[in-house]
Amino acid sequence: MRYNRATMRPSKRESVRKEFRVHSAHIGGSGRGGYMASRVPEIRTAVQPSQADKVVKTTVNMTRPGKSGDGKSELYRPSRLGLSLVLVLLPQIVFAQDTGSTPIAAEIGFILTTFMFLVSGFLVFFMAAGFAMLEAGLVRGKNVAMQLTKNVALFSLASLFYYTLGYNLMYPGDAWTISNVLGAFSVTGLEPVGLQGADPDLTYASVGSDFFFQLMFCAATASIVSGALAERIKLWPFLVFVIVLTSVIYPIQASWKWGGGFLDLMGFQDFAGSTVVHSVGGWAALCGAIVLGPRLGRYKQGKVTPFPGSNLALATLGMFFLWLGWFGFNGGSQLYMDTAGNVADISRIFANTNTAAAAGAVAALILTQVVYRKPDLTMILNGALAGLVSITAEPLTPSLIEATLIGAVGGAIVVFAVPMLDRFKIDDVVGAIPVHLFAGIWGTIAVVFTNDAANLGTQLASIFIVGSFVCVTSSAVWLTLKAMVGIRVDEETEINGLDMAELGMEAYPEFTLG
């Protein structure tokens, strides 16, 4: 027997039953989200989701229920007239979408780019775990729980305050409060469910995916500050600073480049954030370290007292998590995955990112052997991270050889910058300032060697403008907090450890003496 068959989504069953009074046994769904109408012998016609109800209605009205199949509705033809009408109507239904609705091909780029942002975003999310593990491994055991608490809290606060204020400050579109300088003061809004009633920009990606991806960069900036000021800062004043940093300071300066502000109009080049993200965190950390002062006993009689980290295995694992997350950090910053060219560029970015990290680690390995006569694991870890920061400003245009050189210089910077800071008695517990600030500056300058669109004067001016803004604003916040509530724990708390004094718990209680 010849018959007509309609396959529909499970979510459509009830509406079809209700409208056409078809018995429940005769309505099924494929579960894949597709629609199909077919007629035997072996003639199939694809229809758009918006036309599916017309297909079902036409088929139901022209036939009587037959045997139910697994996940589909079998509806048998009672007469040649019914089948003839269905065959006549189906082409009209199928091809009606050609006029007045978006072709499926136009949505593919939107879908792929949105998917890229989501995948890249959760790769960058792993950097939060990386920062937490790296910092927990490099601080002393009595401060590990506090460092982990700060990392969980700062990411959570960034997630809330970036959507409340930061995102639209950073990406105001046409709603600048001060043209090309100060963005919009408004809460982030997402598209409606299913894009119903919306007119999305199909040339880009969904707002939700873009917000999610950009949020990860914002949170990473705050994580940089956390490690540098470890072991002596109070929890709540630090978290207040995080709120200001993630909702105001970071978004405003980021809008100048990535939001289409005046630095972008000047021709400033910063592909994924050597300056916009990493040096901003580094400047904020440097100002905080100066206001806060060094840890007790760190500098005595002109000598530096080493404070070994509690768990180098954890710190090493954290470095690899950061390395992993950087593929999303740089790769996702291509911003499009809608053409073969863009996909090829993303693969190129991945290769250059990995190469720079490896070169930074090897450079630090060799230099510490030469300078200290023994390789230093903590320097090697930070050398890899400095290589990653260095390539971040331009991971696309370099060749593999150029990426190697850029990353190697970043690794070398760390080896020489760490003791330089100690000479100035600036106590950076995890080496965040050399890695993110100094290597970030180098990476921003290095763009001119591989990208013809970059101008050295513009790059240097932008570094100065962003650095000045972040130093002034972050110093103002640090000094205000210091004057109002104090930002440093008392001497006894610092000696005994922040875990017990501030949290009442320890990360390694079984190793507690006594």
CATH superfamily of the largest domain: Ammonium transporter AmtB like domains
- The whole-angstrom Rg is 29 Å
Helix content: 55-70%
Number of DSSP E strands? 7
Sketch the major β-sheet: 5 strands, antiparallel
Number of domains: 2
Structural class: mainly alpha
The geometry reads as globular
Identify the CATH class of the largest domain: Mainly Alpha
CATH architecture of the largest domain: Orthogonal Bundle
Summed over residues and divided by their number, the pLDDT gives a mean of: 85
Compile the SSE list and pairings.
Layout: E1 3-7, H1 13-20, E2 36-39, E3 43-46, H2 52-62, E4 64-65, E5 73-76, H3 80-95, H4 104-138, H5 144-170, H6 207-228, H7 235-257, H8 262-266, H9 274-292, E6 299-300, E7 303-304, H10 312-331, H11 340-372, H12 377-392, H13 400-423, H14 432-446, H15 456-484, H16 491-496, H17 498-503
Antiparallel strand pairs: 1-2, 1-5, 2-3, 4-5, 6-7
Helix pairs in contact: 2-3, 4-5, 4-6, 4-10, 5-6, 5-7, 6-7, 6-9, 7-15, 9-14, 9-15, 10-11, 10-12, 11-12, 11-13, 12-13, 12-14, 13-14
Explain how this protein is built.
There is one protein chain. The protein is mostly helical. It folds into two domains: 3-98, no CATH class; 104-503, Ammonium transporter fold, CATH 1.10.3430.10. It has 17 helices and seven strands. The chain has helices at 13-20, 52-62, 80-95, 104-138, 144-170, 207-228, 235-257, 262-266, 274-292, 312-331, 340-372, 377-392, 400-423, 432-446, 456-484, 491-496, 498-503; strands at residues 3-7, 36-39, 43-46, 64-65, 73-76, 299-300, 303-304. Strands 3-2-1-5-4 form a five-stranded antiparallel sheet, covered by helices on one side. A hairpin with a 3-residue loop joins strand 2 and strand 3. Helix 5 (144-170) runs parallel beside helix 7 and helix 12 (377-392) runs parallel beside helix 14. It starts with a strand and ends in an 11-residue tail after the last helix.
